[in-house]
Amino acid sequence: MIATHDTIRSTIYEASLALDECRWGDWLALCDDGFYYAIKAFSPEIRYDMTYLDGNRAEMVSMCDLLPKHNTDRSPLARHTVVYRVAVDESDASASAVSSVAVYRTVLDGMASHVEAGSSNLFLVGKYHDRFRLENGDAKFVERIVQLDTRRLDKGSHWPI
Amino acid sequence: MPARNHKRWNEVPGELREGEYIDSRIYSDRAIFEEELAKIWKKSWIVACHESEIPEPYDFRTTTIAREPIIVARGSDNQVRAFLNVCPHRGNTIENRPSGSFRNGTASGAPRHMTCMYHGWQFDMKGNCTHISREKEGYQNRLSRNDLGLRRLRCEVHFGGFVWVTLDDAIGKTVEEWGAGCFDCLQKHVDAEPLEVFHYHKAIIHANYKLWHDTNSEFYHDYLHYHNRITGFNDAYFARQNTGFENGHVTVGSFEVQYDKYEGFESRESLSFPGLPPNHWYMIDMFPGVNFNLRGSALRCDIMTPLAPDRVLIEFRGLGLKSDTPEERMSRVRHHNSIWGPFGRNLHEDLLAVTTQQAAMNEHAEPRRILHGRHENNTIHDEIGMRHFYDEWGRWMNRRPSDPEKPYAAAA
Ligand code: FES
Ligand SMILES: [Fe+2]
């Protein structure tokens, strides 16, 4: 059985929920063994296609495993994801999708929390360019390219977007 | 010692002496901030961009120094020049894009010229005014394009191809002289062959620019960074030397980083900059807020633009060799960004720390003492870098960093 467009959409939304809730294991469980992840942006300032972060599945696993050892802004991120386009290729059991994503940060710490905590700010905007492997009605991410428009990233983040 | 009452809290702790602590008001006071722009930022050589960002004739890049808009453009003679990005007519910004090329015309202007879109005045790459719309009709013989060139700024391409600009015509020093030897540890490695910028991102954070310079000037805060603790802490690390140079610059000497101790990280040996021993790490902190950081395979440059006492724009650049193959470039990008990118392991921690530091230094809050009193034979955890910077700062400002209402006096 081939995954439908709905399956692709709900996989993308499940990934957003897992990422919003910092359930890194659940997010990575949606990803294939051959998964590749990258955050990219084109800079008009230097006219260059940049890669801000990238890694294969194993590298993303160890990055997430080491997160508790790092000092991190614990302000939660909320992704507003809208799937714009899904294309399924039944002949080789693959699919691709393009989604728009805006990520908001609701301040918990990382600044004067008495004043700022609880306020939500736009952190970044961009697109998810996803590719999937389809199997038994299921879709697994084989690639996620987060293509950012935002290049003013202020404090940045330790977390995958 | 138990927690202190207000009186004890305000006393100089222990036996610290003048020069070993500063007053937090220099990070938050508005009048001091304005004075810093006038007395320091308008009088220093500042990096505007890297020459690889304007590789072709007619390429340009815009920036600001101390609130003054600046344009850097490459002429048809390949010369890089800098001007105030201000139209001599009614003061419009001439070019509004961050970068681009003047080779082709714009909506209201001719090719190979800078054109102010407002009333169409045009300038060539040397800053000559070449066209004023209805010049004779409007100005008769009272004023001509010959009187209306752009404001030229001193500009040099130096130290690995960075474009340095100063607002002070009378600075009296070349960039080489301004560096006063602080670049000696890196110069032959960054000048061996052309470099290219592969990374750019910006941060505007709620922090005074000096707090960012501080975090670049001391390594005691490696306790903040899990990555550095795991890959760095060994005898050679603790022996790294801080060296102060004239004009307030500081360098931190090198040692061999054990990158493979952090899970998922690899040695950077094969991509070391020309002539640099493998996995070495040098740092140059130039007064008042330009920082170079070479971790073996990737050069990072931070350029600060102070916006307000508690607000700074930091531009982060990463550079490799222009001759890189795509594979080499990709590795350099990874080496740079896994630590220093906006999603890297260390940069987020640094930005977090200075923002929360500023959060406890609000304008008009009680002044506090910020301690710079660690002495460890000028090695890595000695706070000499900051003492050196603030002594220079005090001299330029004629204020005492420990009590900014008093005039400067050299620390005993
Ligand atoms: S303000 Fe520039 S042409 Fe008038
Ligand atoms: Fe740091």
Report on the structure:
The complex is a heterodimer of chains A (161) and B (412). Chain A is built from 4 helices and 6 strands; from the N terminus they run H-H-E-E-H-E-E-H-E-E. With 161 residues, chain A is α+β, with helices and mostly antiparallel strands. Chain A has a 6-stranded mixed beta sheet. In chain A, strand 5 and strand 6 form a beta hairpin. Chain A starts with a helix and ends in a 13-residue tail after the last strand. In chain B, the strands form 4 sheets. Chain B has a 7-stranded antiparallel beta sheet, with no helix packed on it. Chain B folds into 2 domains: 111 residues, 3-layer Sandwich (Rieske Iron-sulfur Protein), CATH 2.102.10; 214 residues, Naphthalene 1,2-dioxygenase Alpha Subunit, Chain A, domain 1, CATH 3.90.380.10. Helices cover 23% and strands 25% of the residues of chain B. Chain B is globular and about 80 Å long. Chain B has 412 residues and is α+β, with helices and mostly antiparallel strands. At the A-B interface, strand 1, strand 2 and helix 3 of A face strand 12, helix 9 and helix 10 of B. The site of fe (ii) ion has 5 residues of chain B, from loops.
